[in-house]
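REQUEST FORM: STRUCTURE PREDICTION
Request ID: SP-0412
Submitted by: Lab K.M.
Chain count: 1
Length (residues): 253
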Amino acid sequence: MLNLERHAKILELIDERGKVEVGELSRLFRISEVTIRNDLKDLHKRGLVRRAHGGAVRIETVSVDASLQVKAALRADEKQRIGVAAAALIKDGDSVILDSGTTTQHIAKQIKDRKDLTVITNGINVAMELLGAKDVRLILLGGMVRQNSYSAVGHFAEDMLRQLSADKLFLAVDAFDLDFGLSTPNPEESKVNQAMVQIATEKILVADSSKFGKRSLSRIVPLSAIDKIITDNSLATDIQAELRARGVEVVLV
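STATUS: Completed
RESULT:
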């Protein structure tokens, strides 16, 4: 069997099962495990599969831009724990950016008692959480409001961000892939996120483990742009190891 034919069959198996193992493929094709590992390495480099311990897995794609209400009901316990851990990094006197989303809303709930805190956000739900917090200076970005995410996007939001700076950015995303980086279904949202990354000193990804190993339409930034990741303790161990090998601090909650 030619390499291309074998690669096509491997991709077909991964698409059907979601995962394949080196030993299984070696027996199926009656070739060495070394050859199979080289096949998987090549497919990984081409962005067709993701390497995993002992084999490879399918790359999931996030195409649905779910509403804020739907997202709020998903993995609520994990998001709450992530929010508490992220809030612990925010000190009196800090200036922080909270991206729109349900995970960042959990962060907002935990920081209402901070002193001399500046919060920049494009999330209406995040801003609503902080209304009435007397020692929090709230900067709500302007722009076109996306109805399903309660977020402001467009050049008004991007222009405002370019006039600001922040100590920390807490960025929530729909998808994260080791090679593709952080991504979202909405291109306008990704442009605002990119502007946030550019003005923040420390960039922190806050995302539950279901977001990992997936790609979406619009890339925000590569992994190299992120300093720290806060996620739940269900994150696959091979992804944890690879993140740390690439110099990213991983906090599990």
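NOTES: The first strand starts at residue 19 and ends at 21.
Reviewed by: T.R.
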